[in-house]
Structures are given as structure tokens and as C-alpha cells.
Amino acid sequence: MMKGKGMQSELVEIPFDGRRIQIEIQWLRPQRQERPLVVFLHEGLGSISMWRDYPAVLCEAGDFRGLVLSRYGYGRSTPRPAPEKWGVDFMHRQAREALPALFDTLEIGPGRKRGKPWLFGHSDGGSIALIHAASFPQAVDGITVLAPHILVEDLSVSSIRATREAYLQTDLRSKLARHHDDVDSAFWGWNDIWLDPAFRAFDLHPLLSQIQCPVLAVQGEDDEYGTMAQIEGIHRYAPQTVLLKLPRCGHSPHRDQPGPLTDAAVRFITAHTSYLK
């Protein structure tokens, strides 16, 4: 089992796509039952271990509980079979099918044992958080999204194409293999769909006005995968959104600017959790 801050990951089984799959999860500070539960949703090539110690750092700083997971196809979760190709709606399916199935299994949600969660999503995980909050407006207390995608920009496609070349030509594959049981499943599932011309149709604008919960949207000024249009678009359609634009920060604010991000996220979650006021 992968370890972090003295905690181990475990596998839970959920229904998805007409079958049973296993999802790798890790609990942080579960004994703090009265505190907010923050669910961490990783990036397109991420996993529990790819977060490193950031979820533990945030949860310690805010006295939060945490749930970190590896999505289907990532980490120690069930790998995506090689012939299975993700569709343009792959993030919608994660947000509307896989995540609710996991929450049902773990008794997370309104009126359930572990209560309503806060979602903390990075990149593709940020998009999944937005879709989930829009699709189930009463199911979450709020969301924090780091470098989310609400549309496909030329910059994103160019950088993802460069990542493909790095995977084929450099040691990127071996580095990622430390974090995934089936690294090719993780990489090609993500890379193939992002570079598919059909994926240009991906657009979350029609959903954003359905988000009712508080939103903290974070973008680095030097993000190589997206521009400020991503988070500014969220604010335009969900005006309760608070924007955090970080200087000297690329696509991973939790690695490039962990201090300012942690301070902002703790303040935001605390301020918008009614029983903490």
C-alpha cells in the first residue's frame, strides 16, 4: 500500500459502467469527525501519491478531515483496459457516475455518516469538481479548483502534445510509473482524448450557472496548460466565485505556491462552513 504521513491507502469497490471496479482511497485525520471533509481530486496524470504530502499539509493547517483518491485508471485503482477509449464526456462520467458511487459506498453526503464534502480539485480534477457541484447542487458544501478546465484552449493542446513527446522520448514514463500500477493506462487514457479533435467540443459554460455552492478558483500566472480565461469564465457564470491569481506559479499551485494556496483555502473553507462561524 502507498503511504503518506503515516497513512495507508486502501481499495474500495464501486459499480461503474456496468461492472465493479476498485478505487484507491486514503483517509486523513478521520478521527476529526466534527470537522469539514475535504475530498481531493487529482489532475489528468495524477494519483494519491502524486499529490505528495499536500493533502496532509492542508488538512493539518485547517484541522480538516481528508479523503484522497485515485480515479479509475490511475494509481492502484482498476486500470483502464488498453482497448477502452475515453469519450469526450469522460470527466462528466467521473463527476456524475463514479464519484457519486464512491460517495454512496463511503456514506458521504447530506444526512449521511460522513456528511457533505468540500471538493478540492486540480486540473481535470477541478473540472470534475465543477461538474459534480453543478449536477448535484445540494451535495457539496463548496469547492476549490486549481487550474481547472472549462474549455479547450490552443495552449492546452500544445502543451499536452509536448507531454506526449516527452512520454515517448524521455524518462517521463519511468517517473510516472512510480505512481501508477499501469502507467500506460493512465497516460494514454488522458493523452489520447485530450488530443482527439472531437474533444475541442468540451465546454462547461452551460453548466456553471447551476453551481450554487461557494467556489474558490485558483490559477497560476505562468500556467502552461491554461490561461486566466478558465477561472474568469467560472466567475462570469457563477458570480459567487472568489478568484486567486498566483504569480510565479505554473499549472500546479500546490507545488509552486503551497503557502499562499493553503492560507487562502483554509480561510475560504472555514469562512463558508456555517457551523465553524
Keywords:
277 residues, alpha/beta, Rossmann fold, eight-stranded mixed sheet, two-stranded antiparallel ribbon, 10 helices, 19% strand, disordered N terminus
How do the strands line up in the largest sheet? Answer: 3-4-6-5-7-8-9-10
Give the percentage of residues in beta strands.
15-25%
Order of helices and strands: EEEEEHEHEHEHHHHEHEHH
Strand pairing plus helix content: what structural class?
A: alpha/beta
Number of helices: 10
The figure for the number of domains is: 1
CATH architecture: 3-Layer(aba) Sandwich
In short:
With 277 residues, the chain is an alpha/beta fold. The chain contains ten helices and ten strands.
Plain-language structure description:
InterPro entries: AB_hydrolase_1, AB_hydrolase_fold. Keywords: Hydrolase. This is Benzoate degradation ring-cleavage hydrolase. Residues 38-261 form the AB hydrolase-1 domain. This protein is α/β, with parallel strands linked by helices and 277 residues long. The protein has one domain (3-276): Alpha/Beta hydrolase fold, catalytic domain (Rossmann fold). The protein is 37% helix and 19% strand. It has ten helices and ten strands. The protein has an eight-stranded mixed sheet with strand order 3-4-6-5-7-8-9-10, sandwiched between helices. The chain has a two-stranded antiparallel ribbon with strand order 1-2. Strand 9, helix 8 and strand 10 (242-246) form a beta-alpha-beta unit. Helix 1 crosses helix 10 and helix 2 (90-106) crosses helix 3. The longest helix has 17 residues, at 90-106. It is globular. The termini are far apart. Mean pLDDT is 95; it is low at 1-6.
